[in-house]
Specification:
Structural class: mainly alpha
Oligomer: single chain
Distance between the termini: 62 Å
InterPro entries: Crypto/Photolyase_FAD-like_sf (IPR036134), PhrB-like (IPR007357), Rossmann-like_a/b/a_fold (IPR014729), UV-DNA_repair_photolyase (IPR052551)
Number of strands: 7
Protein name: Cryptochrome/photolyase family protein
Number of helices: 21
Length: 496
């Protein structure tokens, strides 16, 4: 009899079950996951819906156990018998499966590059300051991805110059075709009833709002979402991928991250379909390259660095930021916030568990960085609050990029800005209580004052950074710097 294979809740696509079609499957729904941390309600619903849908698809082949812990569930499913499992996506889960004598851990799936191949590449680059652009070009070459022989498609590796346009002037939306949205079914209803009961009876608490489900929970839905994006939205993705519009939070983004991170889609099929669209003349190269960069470049890079940097990386705090996250942020209380940009994005997270990469980095992350919030707590918040948030995703993204807590091992500079950037790349400053160019007074933009206070606080470190030296010198031109710093100090952790 074949050895059962254990599927975690982010290993739900067919590529996690290759081999014999009669291999028994084990799936475990562990209540302790939700008891330990306060996840976004929409995220909890999506993960449980996806797991239960996958179990329904597998039918009699799966033993689906609902237990307090994974250990208890595995004991109920297979006793002391042997079981295999794909390499998990977090250090905690890997420690668990390696501690169980009956479990054999198989290589990771769901990514383009094997761990050993990345380690060889990284070690060959000295293992220190690893740059995503170098890795991305290596992946493109080694996978013959968006290439014309030895040359990159369109004769350029990087189309960022064409993909950083502000939103069209006066436009409330991009006018892109609507993204795919799934229809809920009886499994979704069952999950929602269970979550309600856990909140009433089982000391389980969530944050944010839930319903209706906005993201795929099945392979069929995920493929429909991929098809919808490639055929109708990919062509317009590139130019405005870094822009923000208050009335159009999804713009032309793919909304495929949760499907990829649940394992419903394989990254290879996503980038191959995008490339096919370019070769067929259905999408311009800059849009296709922008999407390929996100999936085969950044996503792959973050996954590999999570393992390469080691488990202690999450505790890096080069800037010595230790301020706790304020209650209004933890509770996603957008109504308490006056700054229109931050209130708009916080409301998007509260209502959907999602917002695209620029609000995450340049609004939510930038505000946390300027305030000096503890990067470990910020990482945990992003993990819990986003439907596509997992430990491997958020540790490098937040510690390394958003909060610059590794001191520059992953990125060349801190990603933060004043209000002028927000004003240029969005319509979020219109109608705001603050003015993006104001540094002092009642209408001083919190991002502008926060930016200058951040540069001042870390001047000794940042003035040695070639990419930050010029902004830091700008401090010397501020005649009102003392007033800016005093004003920023008075703000404390009150909502901006």
């Amino acid at each position: 009899m074949a050895v059962p294979h254990w599927l975690f809740g982010d290993q739900l696509g067919p590529h996690f079950l290759t081999g014999r079609s009669d291999t028994p499957v084990v799936m475990i729904e562990a209540r302790s996951v939700f008891r330990r941390r306060r996840f976004h309600r929409a995220k909890a619903h999506l993960v449980l819906s996806a797991m239960r849908h996958r179990a329904a698809e597998l039918g009699d082949r799966v033993r689906y156990v609902r237990a307090e812990t994974y250990r208890e569930g595995l004991r109920e499913a297979v006793g002391d018998g042997p079981v295999t499992v794909g390499h998990p996506t977090s250090y905690a889960a890997l420690r668990l499966v390696r501690s169980l004598e009956s479990v054999t851990v198989l290589p990771a799936r769901g990514f383009l590059v094997a761990h050993d191949d990345f380690r060889a590449w990284a070690d060959g680059h000295g293992g220190g300051r690893l740059r995503q652009e170098d890795f991305y070009r290596w992946v493109r070459r080694s996978h013959d991805l968006l290439m014309d022989g030895d040359r990159p498609a369109g004769d350029r590796w990087n189309h960022d110059h064409d993909n950083r346009e502000p939103p069209p002037k006066g436009a409330r939306t991009l006018g892109a075709p609507r993204p795919y949205r799934p229809r809920e079914d009886e499994i979704d209803d069952e999950v929602r009833r269970d979550l309600d009961r856990w909140e009433r009876e089982d000391s389980v608490a969530f944050v944010g709002r839930d319903g209706p489900r906005l993201f795929p929970a099945t392979r069929r839905e995920a493929l429909a979402a991929l098809r919808r994006f490639v055929e109708h939205r990919l062509a317009g993705f590139g130019p405005h991928e870094d822009a923000m519009l208050a009335g159009d939070p999804v713009m032309s983004h793919s909304l495929l991250s949760s499907s990829l991170n649940l394992g419903l889609l394989d990254p290879a099929e996503c980038v191959e379909r995008a490339e096919d669209a370019w070769r067929a003349g259905h999408a311009p190269v800059n849009s296709v390259e922008g999407f390929v960069r996100q999936v085969a470049g950044w996503r792959e890079y973050v996954w590999q660095l999570y393992w390469y940097f080691g488990e202690d990386y999450r505790h890096r705090n080069a800037l010595r930021h230790h301020e706790p996250l304020p209650e209004w942020f933890l509770e996603l209380d957008a109504d308490a916030v006056r700054a229109r940009c931050l209130a708009t994005v916080l409301a998007q997270v509260r209502d959907t568990g999602w917002t695209h990469h620029i609000p995450r980095l340049m609004l939510l992350g930038s505000h946390a960085l300027q305030r000096g919030w503890d990067p470990l707590a910020v990482t945990d918040w992003f993990h819990r609050s986003f439907v596509d948030g997992y430990d491997w995703v958020m540790v490098p993204n937040v510690v390394g990029m958003s909060q610059y807590a590794d001191g520059g091992r992953m990125t060349t500079k801190p990603y933060t800005s004043g209000g002028s950037y927000v004003n240029r790349m969005s319509d979020l400053c219109g109608g705001c209580a603050y003015r993006p160019g104001a540094r002092t007074g009642d209408r001083a933009c919190p991002f502008t004052t926060g930016y200058w206070a951040f540069l001042h606080r870390h001047r000794a470190r940042l003035e040695r950074n070639p990419r930050m030296a010029q902004p830091v010198r700008g401090l010397d031109r501020l005649a009102d710097l003392d007033e800016v710093l005093q004003q920023e100090g008075r703000r404390g952790d009150t909502p901006p």
